[in-house]
Specification:
This protein is an all-alpha fold and 306 residues long. It has 14 helices and no strands.
Length: 306
């Protein structure tokens, strides 16, 4: 049984770690909001351990000499949680609660850990497919687990949820290009960088800002079909869940729009969506969700949503 202190800790993490997701999560019913928050807190904790960050903020400070041991520790704790062992760590106790309550297959939490293993191995992403594989492991599977918490389990719904997670991650990569490079990580496809005239090397991105930005733009364009696909999952959800997902969808996509608006000179600062714009997105998403669960559901859930 989770304590109120553990639940409060998870709520604090999502409020501080992602204002976009925090606003969206408030629209869920109480139990769904609690479990989504617990899953987010576990994901955030594992990511912070690997990156040496707090709530995903600041420069990457991981110690490569300890990274393999940190990863092994996360994997073992995850396995213990999935096996039903008593967990003293609140983040893994939260994971255990969520997977047991919603019958989430082990493959999805473990796939996330495999995504972090790519970071530890300093994997090179040569093609867009390589970058998409990473995005699936660190975000697509999170979308799938969130969908299961909401109650969507059919094959198409899980694919749409995975696509939304992938779209979010591609947006993250586009926003954090320079921060990631400082941590010796480049997720932009290396073949695209070469085509744009950017030499190999983590310092080349700053030395060729316009060329790097052209690749960032290309990656955000590659995210669009995934955002579009994710909209098709809304009609199968209940109204509150559809609204919450629509808010996350619209708000996070706005981050990519802001990256494009700032241009090459904006790559040195983290693009954010203002509180006013987040609230505006929430209200616009109310209409999108209402139409999704009525008219679009009646049409079979395949009508494009604006």
């Amino acid at each position: 049984m989770l304590t109120e202190k553990q639940l409060a800790q998870s709520r604090t993490i999502i409020e501080r770690g992602s204002k976009s997701f925090a606003i969206a999560s408030r629209l869920f019913d109480r139990e769904t909001r609690q479990d989504a928050t617990l899953l987010y807190a576990w994901c955030r904790h594992c990511d912070d351990v690997i990156d040496g960050q707090e709530l995903g903020m600041g420069p990457l400070r991981y110690d490569q000499s300890k990274a393999a041991d940190e990863l092994a520790g996360l994997r073992q704790l995850t396995l213990d949680a999935l096996k039903g062992k008593t967990m003293s760590n609140p983040f893994f106790a939260g994971l255990q609660h969520v997977v047991e309550r919603h019958d989430i297959p082990d493959e999805y939490p473990l796939a996330l850990i495999d995504g972090f293993a790519m970071d530890v191995a300093k994997r090179r992403y040569e093609t867009l497919d390589d970058t998409l594989e990473y995005a699936y492991h660190v975000a697509g599977v999170v979308g799938i687990m969130m969908a299961m918490i909401i109650g969507a389990r059919d094959k198409n719904s899980l694919r749409y949820a995975s696509d939304l997670g992938i779209a979010f991650q591609l947006t993250n990569i586009a926003r954090d290009v320079y921060d990631d490079a400082r941590g010796e990580r480049i997720y932009l496809p290396a073949s695209w960088l070469r085509q744009a005239g950017v030499p190999d090397g983590i310092y080349a991105l700053r030395e060729y800002p316009q060329a790097t930005f052209s690749v960032v733009r290309r990656l955000l364009e590659a995210a669009e079909p995934y955002y579009a696909s994710a909209r098709w999952g809304l009609p199968s959800l209940g109204f509150r869940s559809a609204w919450a997902v629509a808010v996350a969808h619209r708000t996070y996509r706005r981050i990519g729009i802001e990256v494009l608006r700032q241009g090459a000179q904006g790559l040195s600062q983290r693009a954010v969506v203002s509180h006013k714009d987040r609230l505006k997105s929430a209200m616009q998403s109310l209409f999108v969700a209402s139409r999704a669960v009525t008219w679009d559901r009646w049409l079979g859930g395949r009508a494009p949503l604006s």
